[in-house]
Predict the structure of Phosphoribosylformylglycinamidine synthase subunit PurS.
Amino acid sequence: MARVVVDVMLKPEILDPQGQAVQRALPRLGFTGIADVRQGKRFELELEGPVDEAALVRIREAAETFLANTVIEDFTVRVEDGQ
Amino acid sequence: MARVVVDVMLKPEILDPQGQAVQRALPRLGFTGIADVRQGKRFELELEGPVDEAALVRIREAAETFLANTVIEDFTVRVEDGQ
C-alpha cells in the first residue's frame, strides 16, 4: 500500500496563533534559538492502487476542495518514500 | 534561516476520529481508492543558528516534552531541504 502525505499550512501572511503560542512557550521551557514556529496539519493517505499521476491528480483535487481551505492555507502533496 | 519540521502523528494503535471522518467523507465527495487516512500535526521551526547535531538534539527534546504527547503520539524531526 502506498502512502501519500498532504501537508496543509496557513499561508505565510495569515496569523498563526497556535504557532505563536508554541514559539512563546519554548524559551520559558529552556529552548532558545527558535525564531518562528508555524503549526499546520499533516494527512497520511494510504492508497489502494498504485501512486500514478492520475492518483496524484485526484489527491491534489481532494486536498484543494476538502483538506485545505485555499483561501487561507497552502498545501503540498508528496509520495512518502521508504514505506 | 534553517527550517526544521516536526511531524506529530497519533500512534498506529490509537483511534484517530479526525482521520476517520476524512476517510468517510472522501467517497461521498467522489474520491475513491483511499484505504486509510490519519491526521496529525506539522510544526515548522525556523532556527536562528545552524542546524547542527546539538540543535537537533534540543529540538528532539522539545518535541518529546512539549510538541508531542508521547503516550499517544509518535514524532519525527527532519531538516527541510530546498529552503
Observations:
- The beta strands of chain A are 2-10, 34-47, 73-79.
- The two ends of chain A are 8 Å apart (CA to CA).
